[in-house]
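Troubleshooting: if your tokenizer reports a length mismatch, compare against these two reference records.
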Amino acid sequence: MAIIPTAGNDPERLRRCLDSLRMSAAGLTLHPVVVLCPASIKRVRVTKSVCAGRAQLVSLPGPFNYCRSINEGLLQRRPGDGYALFLNDDVTFREPGDLARMKQTLREQHWACVGPHIEHWHGKHSRVKRGDGAVRTNEPVNGCCALWELDWLDRLGPLDEEFGRGWGLDEADLCLRALRLGARYGREDRVSIEHVGHATFGTEYADCNGDAHQRNVRHFRRKYGSEVGLWGQTHHWEPLPGVQVSIAAHNAAPWLGRCLDSVEQALDGFRWTLFLGDDCSSDETFEIALAYQSRSGADVCHVRRFQRKAMTVDQAKNRVIRMGMPYRRLYPAMCLMDADDVMAPGRVRHLLWQARDGGHRAVLGDYLQITPHFPARLNRIVRATPRSQIDRGFGPWATLFHSSLVPRNARLFREHREQVSNGDVDLWVRWFRRGIDMVPFPGEVVHHYYLHEGSVSRPQDPALARQFEERWRRRKARLLGTRLSNVTAQTYATP
């Protein structure tokens, strides 16, 4: 669909806009919606004659509010609409198929939004030189012509109508909201448009120092703080680090599909890679992983079946981490997953911003502990606290850490040749001993951790479980250099 807000001041200009839109959409199914605001009897009659056979007309009472007009247009979406083009009535496309090229770029780049090159705008205001195709930018996509994926707009919610009362920064607000959810966007520089500039709003809004624009500037700064730049000039507009997900799986067929679907959903819109190692499974784990590989939204998705069974769980995890080491520079945020768990969206959306803005090398959040076949009321949320790193013993879930903490040989975990090594919580305590803090950011469940009876970390034999905990307690006392009586035996598998 295409949404064209108009004040009805120049019917001929609107006619040219609609005609060029039809030309640009060659080969596409087009649903244009013209939103007239303010609506008087005379303007409705004239605008209706312009839209006849060209577009659906919706009218709103005044005064003119650009964002309100866009929101009203979005309510007219049809079941088959997958994209929304925001288009000012003072914009015309130059070449047939321009809109089709923008849509192609949006799909190929997995962006939330894309715009064309605007000579008089980007030539003056953009730090990114014009290219010959898709150009990733941090600056917002200019709102005069912006193609959005409707799924992303559903996540973001309506445009802030406070901005629509003036001129400017409505697109900055929307793009920054998308960026904070992991969106990427940019320009399609093969497409160039004619833009009159401010004609949609009227000349009274054109002055950057005027009341209309300055009102929006004040609203933006109240909303985000004065340190957040208006047009991508601060670090808040820089792209988030790429994320690397590592999964070691062994006989995980009953749960692997659910796990991978949760990863896909949590990382939708982010730059990410997936490395999955099958540790000689005897079930359909490898086949499920291969089927997922062909439809994954990851930038890189590698699935490997190891021919020799790992001696320990820690060795299996290290082998998968080694698979991703060539990508550690572009995808430095490490996410480790158990193949039977579920990643909540906050694992990345909540923790990655905290890690980047705070300059933290390792962060952790709350997780939901679930015991299958037990009543749901027995599930509990485990809160991240400043002492979680050494007291409770968080496993690799609910955490995010920088790849620089991984040794060059990729032996992140100590490969003890024991039946149960507790290597992950062992790692967090060793980091604590070295002064590497896992900074807690509670308040959002970032992971669903399943406690399966009989697993490596939770043996069914009570005597073996006690032996497991006592062995870990002695080791933790040695790592921390303290008395055995000062150390709890509690681990993440302890009920």
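Reference record two:
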Amino acid sequence: SAGANATIFYCLTWIHALHVLGGLVILGVCLANAWRGRYTLDAHLGVELCELYWHFLLAVWLVLVVMLFFML
């Protein structure tokens, strides 16, 4: 009953929260692999993918904040 803006806000917030939770799982897997010594100076693709995911999530968060700032 609050309107379309509130619906969009809550939907985007939940989608972002799901991405953060997924990122925490990925980060946990990456950390577990690092503790097991599976990454070397030459073989560290998992760390790079984890880094790219978190940078992507940061970019999505920034876009989300700017969109909400101008929408509300």
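Descriptive notes for reference record two:
- The chain has a mean pLDDT of 87.
- DSSP finds two helices and no strands in the chain.
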